[in-house]
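User: quick one, sequence for these tokens?
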């Protein structure tokens, strides 16, 4: 009888040891964690950090719709595993899903950070992430890009014209890519429109 119990104990331990984990912190499906999300919404390297390790979980954060630029957050999130077939276009992936805000603090510094205005998507390839409404330019649809320099204004207009040209070619099914391989904007939070705008200090266009 003792051997039977031992056999089932081994089976249970084996099953537990085979439970799949995700990311460098070996998160389990459904596991809840605390994340730090920075004020640099949409910036290069913008990704959640798992706490208290203060390191990247190498997983994206979804459903955090209430996030605002200019604010640092501590949030609770849940590991959501995807076990379906892998898609050619990336498809659904394992990720961290937002649950609730633990703490929200306004960022009071003035450090610069970078935005990448050319981003690649599968399928579709590289696109220019810039919108224009009347005489205003926007990043990720709702973050205005402001400036105090006519040269920056001229560069943004040049980028927008190229994006318009690409969209027209796409309508006519003519293959085309942006004129530049990379467009990096160095920005800070705009104190005159905090939480809604980034002030552009420089643009680096790499062909």
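Assistant:
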């Amino acid at each position: 009888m003792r051997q039977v119990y031992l056999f089932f104990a081994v089976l249970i331990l084996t099953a537990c040891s085979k439970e799949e984990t995700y990311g460098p912190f070996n998160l389990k499906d459904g596991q809840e964690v605390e994340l730090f999300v920075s004020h640099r919404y949409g910036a290069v390297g913008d990704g959640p950090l798992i706490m208290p390790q203060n390191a990247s979980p190498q997983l994206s954060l979804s459903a955090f719709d209430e996030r605002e630029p200019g604010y640092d957050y501590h949030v609770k999130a849940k590991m959501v595993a995807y076990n379906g077939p892998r898609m050619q276009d990336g498809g659904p992936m394992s990720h961290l899903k937002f649950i609730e805000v633990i703490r929200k603090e306004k960022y009071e510094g003035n450090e610069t950070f970078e935005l990448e205005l050319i981003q690649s998507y599968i399928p579709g390839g590289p696109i220019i992430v810039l919108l224009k409404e009347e005489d205003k330019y926007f990043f990720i649809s709702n973050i205005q890009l402001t400036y105090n320099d006519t040269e920056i204004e001229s560069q943004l207009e040049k980028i927008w014209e190229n994006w318009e040209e690409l969209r027209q070619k796409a309508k006519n099914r003519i293959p085309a890519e942006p004129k530049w391989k990379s467009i990096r904007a160095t920005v800070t939070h705009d104190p005159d429109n905090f939480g809604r705008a980034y002030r552009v200090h420089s643009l680096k266009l790499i062909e």
